[in-house]
Amino acid sequence: MEDVIRSLGFLCLGSRLKRIGEQLQADTQRLLDCLDVPVQSSQYPLLAALDRLGPLPVGELAQSLGVAQPGVTRSVSLLAELGLVEVSPSDDDQRRRIVCLTLHGQRLVDVAKHDVWPRIENAVADLCADLSGPLLDQLAAIEDGLAAAALDRRVKKPEVPRDEIPA
Fold first, then answer.
1. pTM of the prediction?
2. Which DSSP state fits 101?
3. Quick one: which of 134, 117, 136 has its CA closest to 35?
């Protein structure tokens, strides 16, 4: 069976990257399940951001992860239910909610940094070992390029007047 997404090249690069990301997250989740870790693989970047950057307002947490605020708000709620993060109003603005790791959350992150994340990182590095070129640098360049000019700004205008384009 033809892999249509792969065969369409750059046209479906976003779909292909999403597919790769979903596969990596599913594989990571299986590893986490085997290790009895009570967190979804998609929530680890949020925990890592809080560990690295300290307590943050929800908006800044979303910005640090490069994702939409509603998704972060949902993840924060789930992690709060698990007792891994705590949400409190900001001292200077009661409308802003500050998210921080709880003691239980910090312990989970510490264990993950020592026992879980290195395994995942090594497995992904092994997967990418035979690739040519600096993959992470190339992905960063794609992200930077999209930040500088989104695809809709990069699309070349058709040379044929719009009224002559068949419907």
1. 0.78
2. E
3. 117
